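Exercise 3.2. Students should predict the tertiary structure of the chain below and write it as structure tokens, then compare their answer with the key that follows.

Predict this chain's 3D structure.
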Amino acid sequence: MDAVGQKLLDVAKTQLGYTEKSDGYTKFGDWFAKNVDAQHDSYFATAPWCDMFIAWAADKAGVKDWVGEFASTPDHAAWFQKQHAWGTKPQPGALVFYSWSGSKGIADINHVGLVERVEGGTLHTIEGNTDGVHLMRKTRDTSSVVGYGYPAKVKVAGQEIPGGPSTAQQYAPKHSAPAPSVETILKDAPPAARTATKAPSAAPFAANHGQSPFAGHEAALSGLVAVLLCGSLALAVGKTTAAKMPAPPAVRVRKRGRHHRTALPVALPAEVTAADLDAAEASTVMMPALTLAAAAEAEDRAFWGKITELEDDQELAFWNDLHAAVGHSEKTSQAPDHSYAT
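Answer key:
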């Protein structure tokens, strides 16, 4: 649908059923004489009015710059051709120009209408001054069509197509936004991550040697800082994820001691003596220690089991390796360098 033509159709539909007066007078011709013709010639008030009706509708729809204001159909078609808005393909909202002689020449055009819809080779139109006196809907084939004018293809300097897509604001995808600053990224990061991004100062060396030891390596250092930052953030995320995982059931260690005894003495069976009890307690004195060791081992297994689950994640494994590599690189770069002359 031609966006400008749609506005024309909206106005044209409100005029369906209009009929010229017995002397040929129409309000559309009268309007043209008073508002378009420079000489205000009264001739137009009773002249053939198919094109003046379209000029009137364009004015009411606020699209006259895209449609043009003509009383002559050949001149109107030639104007569309000059505006590079002329063609032979039917389209709803387009102006359709006819030659009843069957000629395909613009100079032989006799009539104009508005295309409302297209069904195969059949045009459904709204036309003024048709069947002699009416403004009505018509159904026609394309045998008498010379061509079509497409209002939306007319270029009007400094103006957007009415009803068309606005160009005032261009869509900007989120991923095209400027990259956030390091400070923004680290605002909520753990202290370790913020510390890791601080590059060693070159001021002392510059004072003694006149130039930075990092001259020529700024890009490499920036990349290293970025890698270290990403690795630190990834590790922080991993630790946070591990902390949120449901903890395994606590391992309970039962310790034997005097607090397990009842407050009051109890009668011993005939076959058990106090010496037997002392001997039994002495033989299990290491039991609490063994139980604690087993508990610690169970806790270690539970903890490292969770770490293994995290390390199975390829992305975290990648950042772990990267963090280790950067840490090794930092240690190497911080080693004392005795290659400079004193």
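Discussion points: The CA atoms of residues 253 and 292 lie 7 Å apart. The longest strand covers residues 111-119.
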